[in-house]
Specification:
The protein has two domains: 173 residues, Quinone Oxidoreductase, Chain A, domain 1; 125 residues, NAD(P)-binding Rossmann-like Domain (Rossmann fold, 3-Layer(aba) Sandwich). The chain is built from ten helices and 16 strands. Strand 15, helix 10 and strand 16 form a beta-alpha-beta unit. Helix 2 packs across helix 3 and helix 2 packs across helix 9. It is globular. The structure holds NADPH dihydro-nicotinamide-adenine-dinucleotide phosphate. The site of NADPH dihydro-nicotinamide-adenine-dinucleotide phosphate (NDP) has 30 residues, from helix 1, helix 2, helix 3 and helix 10. NADPH dihydro-nicotinamide-adenine-dinucleotide phosphate binds next to helix 1, helix 2, helix 3 and helix 10.
Length: 322
Amino acid sequence: MKAVRVHAPGGPEVMKYEDVAAPTPKAGEALVKVDAAGLNYIDVYFRTGQYKVEFPVTLGMEAGGTVTAVGPGVTEVKPGDKVAYTGVPGAYAELAAVAAQRLVVLPAGVSTRQGAAAMLQGMTAHYLACSTWPLKSGDTCLVHAAAGGVGLLLCQIARMRGARVIGTVSTEEKAKLARGAGAHEVILYTTQDFEAEVKRLTGGKGVQVVYDSVGKTTFDKGFNCLAARGMMVLYGQSSGPVGMFDPQVLNQKGSVCLTRPSLFHYVATRAELLERAGEVLGWIHDGRLKLRTELEFPLKDAAEAHRALEGRRTTGKVLLIP
Ligand code: NDP
């Protein structure tokens, strides 16, 4: 079968579309024929070596597809089931052997492409808005990179929960998308000072929570946007990692909190995975949560997809099609 592998860390050019042995499912695993793999920023961190991994590695942490075989002891799924998953490496491939515990059977009416688009970014937006800081009416949140994969979903869920949403984006086109996803206000942080704008928009009060996936270029200023006892949720580093942090800052900025969450810890048990995925997929099924999946690349062009993501040329979800 074909897969996209990386033999040593580097730029997009280190991604090789090559023949590898097809996996066979071991005990507790199911074999999934991948219809679509989701592209996520974490794939870039693995490719560049920012997150440690053993090489060679098949990239990809998310896919949707059909179960074609199961190993001994599997009760969660059966051949023919349409499924989606995240958190298991090796999705940039025609076939993937996946721990059945991590698979979610898609509800009728939700396609495997939608599943591939929803699992990682959708459940991330869900835990950020519903668990890390459970947004409620009266809250205002700041969502950086609001037209990105997580960003567009987070705007929608935050709005659903009754919060006022302020988004940041780099271009007018992205601003339109963020507004369409429910952002009440959008700041072009490439041309406007987002701290001054947030203060203006909140009458100097600040926001209850900052959802920051950009990191290096936004993190420090984000603390100046927080209301007293608010929360800085640093969940990514698209512009680079943040530096060392002095906890005294939390006091100076108004007894605020800092957390650095990861989806993995919010879907660690099968029960929580099924509950969170069930809610996200249910909203997609009912049309309450809209996926933007206009951007697709053939799997063999995965390097091009990485260039687009890192070059800030993507909006919403990007899928790779084997
Ligand atoms: P996005 O679609 O959001 O793409 C990244 C966006 O970040 C860009 O489109 C761009 O938007 C913005 N950005 C700002 N500065 C830069 C820069 N210097 N280089 C590149 N992009 C920049 O990606 P994802 O939705 O896949 O992921 C968003 C972030 O969330 C990532 O950092 C990822 O690691 C993190 N994440 C964390 C999870 C967790 O559980 N902790 C789970 C899922 C994702 P603009 O042009 O508008 O500035």
